[in-house]
């Protein structure tokens, strides 16, 4: 807390009353760092099977093209997909690992790309799939949210892979 106070003093100074203004950590992180942290927290929400926590990172206009080729048009649809998977497979987990996060010159949009892996245990044995993804982030009221995503499957092992 003292370090934040000193940083606030150096960056933004004191208020008119002479007290130190404390700002949120978000203000000191770069946009890229904020997006990477949001992705890490999104991965943690998936690992916890926390559907509201997952959907909290999606913009109201969210859309996705998921690995089975279907299209999702709302955050609620993505939440339903996760809820269904978690209900069927108690150990289901997905991890998205960013390789690149590029923020627009305006600072209001960003492109993230990386690899993803999904895994769970079926009655026939372990299942694992994964590939590449791209995400379009938008800054909404100062917070980075995922506007759209594309998941391309590049491998599949286990029961049900064809």
Structural summary, described in words:
The chain has about 160 residues and is α+β, with helices and mostly antiparallel strands. The protein has one domain: Nuclear Transport Factor 2, Chain: A (Roll). It has four helices and six strands, in the order αααββαββββ. The chain has a six-stranded mixed β-sheet with strand order 2-1-6-5-4-3, covered by helices on one side. The chain is globular.
Radius of gyration: 19 Å
Fraction of residues in helices? Answer: 25-40%
Q: Which consecutive residue ranges, at least 5 long each, have pLDDT under 50? A: 1-25
Residue share in β-strands = 35-45%
Largest sheet: 6 strands, mixed
Principal-axis shape equals globular
CATH architecture: Roll
Name the average pLDDT. Answer: 87
Task: Give the helix/strand layout.
Blueprint: H1 2-11, H2 31-48, H3 51-55, E1 58-65, E2 71-72, H4 75-88, E3 93-103, E4 109-122, E5 125-140, E6 143-157
Parallel strand pairs: 1-6
Antiparallel strand pairs: 1-2, 3-4, 4-5, 5-6
Features:
about 160 residues; Nuclear Transport Factor 2, Chain: A; about 30% helix; 4 helices; disordered N terminus; six-stranded mixed sheet; alpha+beta
